[in-house]
Amino acid sequence: MLDTLPKLETIQFPSLRRQGVDTLQVNLGYRCNQQCLHCHVNAGPNRSEQMAPETVDTLIELLAGGKIRTLDLTGGAPELHPAFRRLVSAARAAGVRVIDRCNLTILEEPGEEGLAQFLADESVEVVASLPCYLQSNVDAQRGKGVFEASVRGLQRLNALGYGSEPDKCLNLVYNPQGPVLPPPQAALERDYKRRLLEEHGVIFNRLLTITNMPINRFGSTLLSRGEFNDYMRLLRDAHLDANLAGVMCRTLVSVDWQGLLYDCDFNQMLGLPMQPGEAGGAAPGLDDLATMAIEGRPIVVRGHCYGCTAGQGSSCGGSLS
Predict the structure, then answer these.
(1) Which is it for strands 97-102 and 206-209: parallel, antiparallel or unpaired?
(2) What is the domain count for the chain?
(3) 70-101, pLDDT tens digit by residue?
(4) Are the CB atoms for 121 and 164 separated by under 8 Å?
(5) Bridge partners of residue 294, in order along the sequence
(6) Residue 239 DSSP one-character state
(7) 241 lies in some domain
(8) Separation CA 205–CA 224 (nearest Å)
(9) Residue 233: what are its φ and ψ, rounded to 5°?
(10) Domain contains 53
(11) Is residue 316 part of a domain?
């Protein structure tokens, strides 16, 4: 796979500093039951990296301290981690909001038959990947049969109250099919809601549009097709300074499967850890988070950061505007 980091290192981006930490976005491992073309994690069925039990224990202790309001679980497919349910239950018992970034097809995997019910019982917020409401587009990006399995997953969640009950939030995620910016989020959400309801009887709360990042699998594809420079030009030309105030790295800390800290999930995939507290110090880890000074800390930025500030802006919570 071709590496985009050397090119991203040469692109300047405005400096940013942290406001604090409200959300921990934790990558439990890179194993996934899917292998999607746009995946910035390069996840797949053959990846074996996963968080150690003792690191999960450290995470649970940190959440019990009451300073973290939101736990955002991602992967791979985070549900494949053996401690996923233990971690979710501990976080909910501590009063922490939990987000599960779910690919929907995981609900049909052997051994996961009770997963949807578990998520509902714990009032976990589900953020589900569905890059289009058309079967042909989804299957082209994610694999044959994925769309139908995803619709069945959505219908199962709806039957448990997701999308209709206030404590069972169901949000969908849209990624563009290629090197283009997402369309306006509000208008696309209306199209999603109409098509999914009319054709499949599916309801959901919000649609989150996320820009494809020029890293890992998607970035490698851009390089191999000679489209990387054009895509970066698109992102930089669409940059809006107003979006800098709302980027997720100001209040979110990303944790990798080894317990190391990053300013965002994209930096994690590029191997760019959060800056140490002192020059020459080691990259901070989960053990440091309870005592380290967060507010005002410089954020590590590179050229890919334009993906979050281009156009309507992009974050793990959808558009910024």
Answers:
(1) unpaired
(2) 1
(3) 999 998 899 999 999 999 999 999 999 999 99
(4) no
(5) none
(6) B
(7) yes
(8) 37
(9) -65, -40
(10) yes
(11) no
The neighbour count for residue 117, using CB atoms within 10 Å, is 11
CATH code where residue 141 lies? 3.20.20
* Residue entry with tokens 């349910």: 85
Residue 162 scores a pLDDT above 80: yes
Collapsed DSSP state (helix, strand, coil) of residue 60: helix
Structure tokens at 10: 């040469």
Closest to 127 (Cα-Cα) out of 82, 78, 194, 91: 78
pLDDT per position as a tens digit, 6-22: 999 999 999 999 998 99
Q: In whole angstroms, give the CA distance from residue 170 to residue 164.
A: 9
Residue-wise DSSP of 285-311: BGGGTTTS--TTPBPP--GGGHHHHBT
CA atoms of 33 and 43, how far apart (whole Å): 9
* Structural domain range at position 158: 5-309
Determine if the pTM surpasses 0.85: yes
pLDDT per residue as tens digits for the range 117-152: 999 999 999 999 898 888 888 777 777 788 999 999
Gap between the Cα atoms of 132 and 37, Å rounded: 14
Q: How deeply is 292 buried, as exposed, middle or buried, from its count of CB atoms within 10 A (0-12, 13-18, 19+)?
A: middle
Residue 120 lies in a domain: yes
